[in-house]
Design goal:
Blueprint (H helix, E strand, L loop, with lengths): L1 E4 L4 E4 L5 H8 L2 H27 L6 E8 L6 E11 L5 E6 L2 E3 L3 E3 L3 E2 L5 E10 L6 E6 L7 E5 L5 H45 L1
Antiparallel strand pairs: 1-2, 3-4, 4-9, 5-6, 5-10, 7-9, 8-9, 10-11
GO cellular component, one term: MHC class II protein complex
Pfam families: C1-set (PF07654), MHC_II_beta (PF00969)
Main location: membrane
Length: about 200
């Protein structure tokens, strides 16, 4: 409702509710002198500290990409571009597929502040994954001399790796069953052939 303007040396009412207080404090010289002293000893000093810690501070963001399948029966996946540990909080994050910017199916989180005064931010892209595609998360921030780009390929993902391992295991098991079956078949034919030879000899 009211604030002290150090340039004019008096209290200024921001609304009509603050006018009675402003008029009273401006009429009291002791209050005015204490307010001026506080500007010199407290306000300017703390502003200098805050300016050193925040205004001139620049911390580069760290970037990681994670993936999760939205539904077990769906081909669509959610790609998350996680940016964290950056300052100041203003940041821009874009998704690209094969160097073409993705503008649909993109969702943005709010910018969260960390206990150390840095920030974190996340952008999600919902998309099908096709073999050979290259997804890129591009980050623009005042601490960076050029955009930071992190690539991600479906082949390098955990689901793709698991499918590859499953396929190899399946091939190995198939080969084992084939060899076992062939061995049993050959032994069975050998026993049958031996029995026929014995019958022919006795006849």
């Amino acid at each position: 409702f009211v604030y002290f303007d150090s340039d004019v040396g008096k209290f200024i009412a921001k609304t009509e509710f603050g006018r009675p207080d402003a008029d009273y404090w401006n009429s009291n010289k002791d209050i005015i002198e204490r307010a001026k002293a506080a500007v010199e000893t407290y306000c300017k000093y703390n502003y200098g500290i805050r300016e050193t810690l925040t205004v001139d501070r620049k911390v580069e963001p760290s970037v990681t990409i994670t993936v999760s399948k939205q539904y077990s029966d769906s081909q669509h996946h959610s790609l998350y571009c996680n940016t964290y540990g950056f300052y100041p909080p203003e940041i821009e994050v874009k998704w690209f597929r094969n160097n073409v910017e993705e503008t649909s199916s993109v969702e943005y989180s709010t910018v969260y502040q960390n206990p150390d005064w840095t920030y974190q931010f996340m952008v999600m892209l919902e998309t099908p994954l096709n073999r050979g595609d290259i997804f890129t998360c591009e980050v623009l921030h005042s601490s960076l001399q050029s955009p930071l780009r992190v690539d991600w390929k479906p082949e390098a993902s955990e689901p793709a790796h698991n499918k590859k391992v499953t396929g190899i295991v399946g091939m190995v098991l198939g080969a084992i069953f084939f060899i076992v079956g062939l061995t049993i078949y050959l032994r069975s034919n050998k026993a049958r052939f031996g029995g026929l030879q014995s019958e022919s000899f006795l006849a």
